[in-house]
User: Which sequence fits this backbone?
């Protein structure tokens, strides 16, 4: 899937929010590979991206779904206010025809109650880089990568939220690196009632990136 136009940003803008990189492209490819599954099987009404950064994924997903079928709502929440502003700007610059609502916030904390069991497509390319724990929890550009111990501190907080947010037909795409221990994440999710698989894997520079894909396990 092509990266949306980001020509409305200057090089300097990427000092304040995440510039799309190999992880972004792998997630775009995973969503594109699932185009038919998303359009024909999931048929999403509500999509949510946590941590949209530049808005590239939010815009690409909204564009993909608009091409395939009408759906009601694309939501995005980022802890970094500059990223939230950037995401709205990218959707507008690419003339996304679907409603895109962007808010600043910590994960889905503000949305969890209202959206419980209603999110059909959930996407998160999280801060996955192992860092000292004190680097986690800022609201600036460092929030794009600082993942704390084993790069898992933000990931571990989102897992129960994802399980609560997903609709019965919902799907959750999560970017991870090897240091995050993907098999352990899958077993945590299994305990929360979601079955996981590795949608794709790619080595990029010093990172072994994977996209984990979770769906609700049949009761
Ligand atoms: C690796 S970047 C990914 C950006 C974009 N989705 C992409 O793929 O290019 C991680 C994003 O998550 C955001 N983020 C980090 N912690 C967050 C949190 N607790 N709640 C919401 N967003 C968060 C960061 O600000 C950043 O925009």
Assistant:
């Amino acid at each position: 899937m092509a990266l949306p136009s980001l020509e409305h940003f200057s090089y300097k803008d990427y000092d304040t929010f995440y510039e799309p990189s190999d992880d972004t492209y792998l997630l775009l490819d995973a969503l594109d590979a699932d185009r038919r599954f998303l359009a024909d099987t999931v048929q999403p009404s509500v999509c949510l991206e946590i941590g949209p950064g530049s808005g590239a994924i939010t815009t690409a997903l909204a564009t993909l779904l608009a091409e395939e079928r009408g759906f009601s709502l694309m939501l995005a929440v980022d802890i970094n206010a500059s990223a939230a502003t950037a995401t709205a700007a990218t959707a507008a610059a690419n003339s996304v025809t679907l409603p895109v609502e962007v808010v600043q916030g910590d994960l889905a904390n503000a949305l969890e109650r209202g959206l419980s069991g209603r999110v059909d497509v959930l996407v998160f390319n999280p801060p996955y880089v192992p860092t000292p724990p004190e680097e986690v929890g800022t609201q600036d550009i460092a929030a794009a990568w600082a993942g704390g111990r084993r790069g898992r501190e933000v990931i571990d907080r989102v897992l129960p939220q994802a399980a609560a947010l997903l609709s019965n037909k919902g799907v959750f795409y999560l970017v991870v690196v090897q240091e995050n221990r993907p098999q352990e994440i899958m077993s945590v999710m299994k305990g929360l009632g979601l079955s996981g698989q590795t949608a794709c894997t790619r080595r990029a520079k010093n990172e072994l990136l994977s996209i984990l894909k979770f769906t609700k396990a049949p009761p």
